[in-house]
Design a protein that fits this description.
Elements lengths: L2 H10 L11 H6 L10 E5 L5 H8 L3 E6 L2 H11 L4 E5 L2 E6 L2 E5 L13 E6 L2 H4 L2 H14 L5 E4 L18 H4 L1
Parallel strand pairs: 1-2, 1-6, 2-5, 6-7
Antiparallel strand pairs: 3-4, 4-5
Length: about 180
């Protein structure tokens, strides 16, 4: 899947994957992870998710990564924040209210970018990627995350033949 696919979707406002509220599974399952308040939570392919604001309200520092400049700008505008910007390596880093978003390609992340991450919240990254990209995604994530780290992964499965995707089906066997 080409980067241009997602950039064009954001540019045209074709973002039906963006939830209008905090994800119900995040609300239901986050506490099980027992992540200490003040810890850094990484949100890959974050878009402009309300989930980041909710996690921040719970007392966490947030680090997202997002390809689309539109999504990053929309996130901070809708949150009512004027983000500070700086270049960090291959990313443009936007930050306000202890929420930072690295704008750029997830696959350019390095270990140093994620060094203080204590948990990962992945609501839609796996389902956004076709099967042939998911192994690279998981490998890159695990190679660059510190240990130990907890991950809340929200995904779903369905007969893939019913729909071309994205979203793509992710079976429990693939996750385990």
């Amino acid at each position: 899947m080409e980067k241009s696919f997602w950039l064009e979707r954001w540019q045209r406002g074709e973002i039906g994957f963006h939830e209008a509220d905090v994800n119900q599974y995040l609300l239901k399952h986050w506490q099980v992870l027992n992540v200490p308040k003040g810890s850094k939570v990484f949100v890959p392919l974050c878009g402009k998710s309300y989930d980041m604001r909710w996690l921040r309200q719970q007392g966490y520092s947030i680090l997202g990564v997002e390809l689309s400049q539109c999504a990053v700008q929309d996130f901070f505008t809708e949150a009512g924040h004027q983000a500070q910007k700086q270049v960090l390596g291959e990313f443009e880093y936007h930050e306000a209210d202890d929420i930072g978003i690295l704008c750029g390609d997830f696959f350019h992340l390095k270990r140093d970018d994620l060094k203080n991450v204590a948990a990962v919240y992945d609501r839609a990254s796996m389902v956004a990627l076709p099967p042939e990209m998911r192994k690279s995604y998981v490998q890159h994530l695990l190679e660059n995350l510190p240990r130990p780290v907890q991950i809340l992964l929200i995904t779903f499965d369905y007969p893939q033949a019913e729909m071309q995707g994205p979203p793509f089906a992710v079976s429990i066997e693939e996750v385990v």
